[in-house]
Amino acid sequence: VIVDSGHAGYSETGSWTASTSATDFYGSGYRWANTEATTTATATFTPDIPEAGRYPIYVWYTQSGNRALDARFEVHHTGGVTSVEVNQQIWGGGWVFLGDFFFDAGTGGKVVLANGGSDPTKFVIADAIRFGGGIGPSGEVRWREGAKSFLTYKGYPASNGEVSIRPVYGR
After folding, report:
1. How far apart (Å, rounded) are the C-alpha atoms in residues 135 and 158?
2. Which pLDDT score, from 0 to 100, does residue 133 have?
3. SS (H, E, C) the chain
4. What are the angstrom distances between the C-alpha of 23 and each of 45, 49, 62, 130, 138?
5. How far apart are CA 37 and CA 108, in angstroms?
6. pLDDT tens per residue, the chain (171 residues)?
7. Helices 147-154 & 162-169, crossing angle to 10 degrees?
8. CA dist 49 → 18, 29, 57, 100, 113 (Å)
9. Which residues make Cβ contacts (< 8 Å) with residue 46, sequence separation at least 6?
10. pTM for this one?
11. Are 72 and 132 in contact, with CB atoms under 8 Å apart?
12. How many angstroms separate the CA atoms of 67 and 34, rounded?
């Protein structure tokens, strides 16, 4: 299940700006907000989970030197709320793993990105959240596949060989 900014399952509070300036976005664009000392804007990604279970959660954002070093994603799952900080200056333009969490079926879970951060000269990016890894060409769940197949699915170039892509798989 993928929830993309500006589409079904996405909502926001505060001031966000739509953009396509960076080229490594997911779907048709992304949203950005200024980082503030206290939270003044949130972007919420609410999936419709097909069945209860443990789901790996991934975030997609555009990377740049003007992005937050401490973008805070709060994962609201069956067991509570888990906060995960992401450096949005690196590893963007592909699916970045936030963790594995248990979700009940339906729309009770969500991931919330807040614009509160340590550097008010930076921006947080709300682009897309993926709930679950899917099934790969091997018939196995994505995380059980080999590094090349898995990372190609995450958005890394298929031209990378097994040797050059393994260090990316290990991060």
Report:
1. 18
2. 78
3. CEEECCCCCEEEECCCEEECCCCCCCCCCEEEEECECCCCCEEEECCCECCCEEEEEEEECCCCCCECCCEEEEEEECCEEEEEEECCCCCCCCCEEEEEEEECCECCCEEEEECECCCCCCEEEECEEEECCCECCCCCEHHHCCHHHHHHHHCCCCCCCHHHHHHHHCC
4. 22, 29, 8, 19, 30
5. 29
6. 999 998 999 999 999 999 999 999 999 999 999 999 999 999 999 999 999 999 999 999 999 999 999 999 999 999 999 999 999 999 899 889 899 899 999 999 999 999 999 999 999 999 999 998 766 666 666 655 566 566 666 666 666 555 555 555 555
7. 70
8. 26, 24, 12, 14, 19
9. 3, 9, 10, 11, 107, 109, 110
10. 0.81
11. no
12. 9
